[in-house]
Specification:
9 strands, 2 domains, alpha+beta, flat, five-stranded antiparallel sheet, two-stranded antiparallel ribbon, 499 residues, 17 helices
Length: 499
Amino acid sequence: MLLRIAVFGAPAPIGRILAPISAILHIPALVVYTAGIRLEFAKLLLQTFEFWFALVTNTIWLVVFSVVLGDLRVLLVAVSGLNFASSLLQETYLRDSLVIVGLAMIEALCLVLLMTAVSVELLDEVQHYSLVSTRHHELSTKDVLVNIIGTMITLMMRTMYRRFLQFKHQKENPGTAVQSLGYHCRITLAPTASSTTGSNSILPRPIGPLPQTKTKQTEMKATSQHPPLQMHLVPDPERFDARNTIWPRFGSLKPLPTLHRIGLYLCGATGLVSYSLSLLLPRSCRSCRTDVIAVMGLTTTGVVCGLHLCCCQRQLLKRVLTSFDYWFLTCQVLAAHLCLFDVFYWRWPSACGVIASLLWGHWTLTVDALTPSMKRRLGVKAWMPTCTILVFMAVQLLLMLALLVWDDSDLQDRVVWDSQILGRQVRFQVVPFLLSRLFTIFVWCSRLLYALVTRKSDNTLMLLHGNVQYDYQHWKLQMKSANTSAIGANETDPQRPQR
């Protein structure tokens, strides 16, 4: 770690000398770690969105950082990229989890220091390039690197947080079973009683390779003496009363009158259209009517989102609000919308649209907190979150085009900070940070869309996932027992040739 810091912190001539040495020192640990990875477990992780998102992010960082360096320090960048890629498979290394956690913490600390150095331009002899440039806005390799490294740090923090929850679960549930960090399954809400009682329970439903894994295990047992490492769904015995809402007076299970439901639909449609217009209409087209549209969009959006919050089930809402996916997306959306306030000169009609967009984002992320009976009461259909995400993505895409392609002069790119650090001019602007956030949001919204489109039931949750676990210690005992039985069978086999 110290040598890696010295490579990027020292002057370029010294860094070029230290980089090959540091890269060579990383190789033995990388080889030993890679040799201990279980391939069947790695195949499961290779089919998850999180793995490929992190891998693509790491690849972009590796390519862009290598281009801006352009010297022997690229060798250390390549090895560091391999280290991060291997850390994505850390739970497939089943021998010593404490060592893996320590290595992950060191890797995260190195990334934090590197992001700081890139942000304040402390790296020596680094040539940044302009990727997109217009009269008023610019996106450079520096902006891409800072965003990418920040995302990589966040993903590593997520893994560490899941590792903490894993240790906590093992402490509360004595045994040798270990929960998987990177592989999860979809879950669905299924009623356990009549609709009048409003009780619902979470039932884990596997997706992807879990059913196929069981089939392969059966075949392997018939053809091999060594039992495979099996994965099991973690049961969730908790029950959720649909009447236990944030505001029981508004969250009752009585069916809404048809007129009220139609009014709710009209408010939702009006809010989506109005907030989009308040953000996309050019300044030259603004008038008193557009101001009314902005206020109408915020008001109708507030009605829909407020009623939605009142009807959320308390336990489910707590699970959503404490999930990593919710906090990751919420922080990205909040940061992007704070930038939008400034980009639109803090004009109140545009601010109404920005606030409405934030409310719709929260509505989408917390739709899992509605029980099936409450969705039927409010008339929330399966296509509604999909439509909301599509509108949100379309608005963000048009804003990106307005900033980078159309060069809209109505949108400002204010300099937030401009000063000198160690003789280097450091400048932070709003638009590059905004574009980085919008790109990350766009990718994660695509993931949510995929989850909504491919789910087999309207009651399958979008953001919340079920856990799976494996018992490595018990599997090792089975392996030893199978090996002992195989040796005994060979010794007593009458057909075995005698020497």
